[in-house]
Specification:
Layout: H1 2-24, E1 36-44, E2 49-52, H2 54-66, E3 84-91, E4 96-102, E5 106-109, E6 115-116, H3 119-131
Antiparallel strand pairs: 1-2, 1-3, 3-4, 4-5, 5-6
Helix pairs in contact: 2-3
């Protein structure tokens, strides 16, 4: 019984420590927003293919960087079916990143871990594409 109480206290202290660490750290961002030279947005299955530069490319990267990510979730992205936006970002220094924006639920960069998004935040991507004139 004492061991169980000790474990509960330790887990509680660890949870508080994690919350404090997260609250004092800078917000996590999927991408660097600096020196973007171009963004290409395609879809799987194929159907959409857009290219952006300048302020339009910056707007897409800013959107992707501002999403509040959910790190822990029970859903398994492999069990979902839906369209994937494939966002390829090119930087001035020659580096590139590919973001997979899946089913208005999940997002990841390159082969990194999946994160979950709220539907409202995920749905903003299509609104942004409409705003930039791509989905009209």
């Amino acid at each position: 019984m004492k061991k169980k109480m000790v474990l509960i206290v330790i887990n509680s202290v660890l949870a508080i420590a994690v919350l404090l660490a997260v609250s004092i750290c800078e917000p996590f961002s999927l991408l660097s927003q600096k020196n973007v030279t171009g963004v290409t947005v395609t879809s799987l299955p194929e159907g959409y293919n857009y290219s952006f530069t300048g302020s339009d490319a910056d707007a897409i990267v800013e959107y992707l960087s501002s999403i509040k990510l959910i790190f822990e979730f029970e859903d398994n992205p492999d069990e979902y079916v839906g369209m994937v936006w494939v966002v390829s970002i090119e930087y001035e220094n020659g580096e590139a990143a590919t973001v997979y924006h899946f089913g208005n639920r999940f997002i990841r960069v390159n082969n990194g871990p999946w994160y979950k998004m709220t539907f409202d935040e995920a749905n903003r991507f299509e609104s942004l594409l409409e705003q930039l004139g791509s989905l009209r």
